[in-house]
Write the structure tokens for this entry.
Amino acid sequence: MRSIPAKLVTWDEIADWCSSLGRMIVDSGYRPDAVIGLARGGWVPARLVCDELVTKNLISLKTQHWGVTASRDGKARLVGELQEDLSGRNILIVDDITDTGDSLRLAHDHAKTLSPGGIRTATMLHINHSSFVPDYYASEVDKDKWTWFVFPWNYYEDMSTFIREILAEEPSPEREIASLLRKNHGIIMTEGRLGRTLSRLEILGLVRQIEGKWSVLVEEKEKKRR
Ligand code: ADP
């Protein structure tokens, strides 16, 4: 079972960070003709930044890096390419966070090959060990305080990973799960929220409850892979 620090990010924090980004970009005088949201983490921030700038031209680009919550899935790579004609246009690439910096660098280098007029990058959070520093970021995270940020759009995916890791050790009642989430990840949840989360994961066939204890439901296809 991994013990990695994690933080449940609220929608209010997302709104604050994106509004700061909007302010910074506007104040800098940069006027993007197109905003590129990196799938998947950059989609919501990119959409909010578009609104901050009253820009309708939102484009998606997909990069892939992290597999299961908080574990890198090999090298960062582009999944697909930009199809739009961006030559001479000012573009802004938006992501949620720079951690290694690899995804943003990859997207930046790909966009550059399309001869845009200007390229700038923006993230809500920037961990200061990242090899790529965005032009705009709303909040800097010290590398010694590295945290896995559970963004609201990744809540079930991340919680499912953490909870299933706990239950893979041994089937446990809800209060034990709550205590291990706190101990291993610093995640503190109300009883109601954890209960609703477990129920959702149960409906989705990811965990099950028998006589008050929760356990991981190993799918047939997962079993075959082992
Ligand atoms: P960046 O592209 O800027 O370096 P990475 O390549 O390190 O980011 O990671 C790609 C994606 O993985 C990020 O856009 C984000 O969605 C997710 N991610 C990486 N690090 C974290 C973290 N510490 N907390 C939450 N999500 C993260």
